[in-house]
Amino acid sequence: MLLRDYVFWDRGVPSHVCDQIVKYGTGQPSAQGAIANYNKTNVNKDIRDSDIGWLQAPWILDWIKEPALRANRDIFKFNLNRLEDIQFTKYTTGQHYDWHIDMADEETSDQSRKLSMVIPLTDPSEYTGGELEFQSLRSAPEGDRKVPPITKNNFKDKGTIMFFPSHIWHRVKPITKGTRQSLVMWNDGKPFV
After folding, report:
1. Over the Cα atoms of the chain, what is R_g?
2. Can you give the CATH number for the domain in which 13 is found?
């Protein structure tokens, strides 16, 4: 039984590397973040309002691949066999991502997201709001929003590498001022049985 909801390395990516990633990410094509449900993708800004792009730069993967493998080997112990492309996400004033899980809902897929990763790239002094919150595996069944979410200040620290099971409910609260940029990545494997 998994006893940890998440694990993180405080400032696992140096600040100057975060700045390089932001410079690279903002120069890539972007689109409105969408929601996938039962093999259909749609934009619903009431649930998800952010701009995203996809990064395939090996130098970025070099910073996150080893921590991802270590987190899984030492903590989660999931059967993983694939890293998805890296998502560069930007939230500006008023943007957010309401409660969701990262696992796909398709029952016929031979791959499933199992381990999610988030890295804040923006210094928390540059924006307000945008807190990353989690519902606990042990105390909040799907859909139960009465249980207070898990919240930590260091979830906003620039360069912190956060890993959590993709079936944990989480959200990014609305940005009230400034811009929050982050990396998101998923590690996949055969679906849980």
Report:
1. 16
2. 2.60.120.620
